[in-house]
């Protein structure tokens, strides 16, 4: 998978709320450990099942194409450990997911204890930037190391 799909007409987006977070999360997608994401339901549905989208780096460069597999609306507090692990973040634990996402939603001003989220699963369709992909493993190592340094130690987390 190296840029074989025509993505010119696809919606483009960045994960997260900073260039650094966008790079980190896009890297997790490219290495195959991030197959889900969630957003505040108050933003509304921004995709549909089967739709393909271009993932951008923190600098706005296209790095991959994902295809949405499922969309579920549920209370933030009801995201399961299995769903949290699909996001591929931190040490893969529900505790890390909860803390990181609560902080994110607080930064964007959407967090409430009873908020609803849209939980999206997806698959990587294509990699568009070989140089970014070559560096993606370093982001994964940093993600795991930072989680360990912060005291998160889920069993089964891959470093």
UniProtKB/TrEMBL annotation:
CDD domains: ASCH_Ef3133_like. SUPFAM superfamilies: PUA domain-like (SSF88697). SMART domains: ASCH. Pfam families: ASCH (PF04266). This is ASCH domain-containing protein. It comes from the Bacteria. Residues 13-126 form the ASCH domain. Gene3D superfamilies: Sulfate adenylyltransferase.
């Amino acid at each position: 998978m190296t840029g074989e799909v025509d993505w010119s007409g696809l919606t483009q987006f960045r994960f997260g709320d900073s260039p650094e977070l966008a790079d980190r999360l896009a890297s997790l997608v490219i290495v195959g450990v991030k197959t889900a994401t969630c957003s505040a339901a108050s933003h509304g549905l921004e995709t549909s099942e089967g739709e393909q989208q271009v993932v951008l780096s923190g600098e706005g460069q296209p790095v991959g194409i994902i295809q949405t597999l499922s969309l579920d609306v549920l209370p933030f507090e009801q995201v399961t450990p299995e769903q949290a692990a699909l996001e591929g973040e931190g040490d893969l634990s529900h505790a890390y997911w909860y803390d990181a996402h609560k902080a994110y939603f607080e930064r964007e001003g959407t967090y409430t204890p009873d908020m609803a989220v849209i939980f999206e699963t997806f698959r990587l369709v294509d990699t568009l930037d070989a140089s970014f992909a070559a560096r993606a493993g370093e982001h994964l190592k940093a993600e795991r190391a930072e989680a360990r340094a912060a005291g998160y130690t889920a069993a089964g987390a891959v470093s």
